[in-house]
Amino acid sequence: ALTGRLQEAFRRLSGNARIDEGNVDGALKEVRQALLEADVHYRVVQDLLKRVRERALGADVPRGLAPDQLLAKLVQDELTAMMGGAGPRHLAWASLPPTVILLCGLQGTGKTTTAAKLARRLIGEGRRTALAAADLQRPAAVEQLSVLGKSVGATVYTAEPGEGAPALAARARREALRAGFDALIIDTAGRLAVDEALMAELKAVKAAAQPHEVLLVLDAMQGQDALPTATRFHEAVGVDGLVLTKLDGDARGGAALSALAVTGKPVKFLGVGEKTEALEPFHPDRLAGRILG
Amino acid sequence: AASGPGRGPEAERSLEEAFLGADLGPELAARLASAYVRGGARGRAEAADALLDCLPPAGRGPSGFLAAAPLARPEVTLLLGVNGSGKTTTAGKLAAAWTSRGQRVLLGAGDTFRAAAADQLGLWAARAGAELLRQSEGADPAAVAFDAVRRGVAAGFDRVLLDTAGRLQTKVNLMEELKKVHRVVGKALPGAPHRVLLVLDGTAGQNMASQARLFAAAVPLDGLVVTKLDGTARAGAVLKVSGDTGVPVALVGLGEGAGDLADFDPPAFIEALLP
Ligand SMILES: Nc1nc2c(ncn2[C@@H]2O[C@H](COP(=O)(O)OP(=O)(O)OP(=O)(O)O)[C@@H](O)[C@H]2O)c(=O)[nH]1
Ligand SMILES: Nc1nc2c(ncn2[C@@H]2O[C@H](COP(=O)(O)OP(=O)(O)OP(=O)(O)O)[C@@H](O)[C@H]2O)c(=O)[nH]1
Ligand SMILES: [Mg+2]
Ligand SMILES: [Mg+2]
Question: What is the pLDDT, as a whole number, of residue B2?
Fold first, then answer.
């Protein structure tokens, strides 16, 4: 089901026998508007519509659909393909435990909560899971993860006096290995992608932890800045997957498409609430529908 | 003139993209780009004026919020907004700003839900030289707010600053809880809360509109706080939100430290939105 604005765009085509050079751009203009309102980055929108236009005017256009239905289908297909085509969406399990998962992202996106949710999920799958509270900056961040970790039955490694985030990450990995954990999830401090010192620290944490999976945690309501942010995090530490949080609200979530387009990496999990059980695996077609409204 | 972005569709398109990138939204971005190009040499100034006009009339000048004298004694300020927007940190910074002006500030730990929320605010209270009122986790947030205001009155504080739990604006039960907090604060002290501030995450896009609309529908808002403007997000969506709701922007958050809070300065904010 497509939003009112898109219905309008497509209705304009429905009087026509087919899509052609004369009517396609008018309809695509409305699609552009809808995607921008959904917070998809303008460059990603431009590329997407270019591909849709080519397909709409191309030789292998699906038959038997009215022009408006056809364009709706092509847009939805293109979105779904972008989201589904970005690679396997499950976690990359290490051949030898522990699998180390590193969470990173801007301030307040839901990393600490997601760390605990992920731990709960893995423990539910029968995997012994530990957490490392490597945010040594935010007031009571360690306490927050400790409380959440305890509530899901996960061991939480916290820094010793004088121990920095990279040293904690290295030690947590060693101890998780020795204790036979299947997974170690490392929570880090929120940071600006343009903060050179903190991005250097993140690289040091990554080097110390040697994660099998680096997840960028994004807030579903993020705007156009999701593109440059995701680009910088990806260039700094190499993102393996995305987590999109706060999808239990009415934010359209276009930021996910921007981040996905620029990293080439898939959304692996969705945060759908504040409780530790509120984590879902990702379904491309559902998010595509949401972005389209 | 040889200066300026030039005319024609190329120039207009590239301007529109700059405005889109600043989260002004497709409608405003298109309108501004066209005005800018048509304005020729005066294009940039005209765009700046158009942006200023988006703000409500009462919100087009420097907000003067931090130095404003308290409206009552104690003056009660309520902070609300979606999860992770920066409410608790803003409470800490605001407390620091007021204590540095010689005022006695009581912080109320109104987030009784999230793990370590009261601990986080407590650390900020210590940092700011303010006092903290908290109850046990799971306590009724309205009860905490009530007690904080009563304590503020009884102990002669200049300001009571009430933090609340993050809530998505579409969660009806949480918005009802917020309305109850607001009502109960008024029972603790008639006229309170004197200032109700909606804290908006500066990295947010068009969802700011829904946030402002639904929070304003729940409780009367006196001001907006836009956080995380020290990053690359430009928070352009705030302009239309402020204009549509008539709620002026009071403060901007510029970092994670106690001093990283400033009055809203419209010309400076708008300058950052222009290419
Ligand atoms: N409604 C909802 N709230 C969420 C979700 N994920 C996280 N939150 C809330 O968002 C707020 C921020 O979450 P945190 O886990 O503290 O975020 P963070 O990224 O660790 O923040 P920093 O460490 O400060 O960068 C909290 O109030 C969480 O409860 C979600 O999926 N839905
Ligand atoms: N860079 C930057 N970070 C900020 C700013 N304001 C808040 N933060 C950070 O954003 C994160 C979330 O801030 P909080 O104060 O916990 O947000 P909150 O709204 O109280 O969150 P909940 O209570 O969980 O809903 C923390 O890491 C803060 O340090 C700001 O102006 N700039
Ligand atoms: Mg955190
Ligand atoms: Mg808070």
Answer: 47
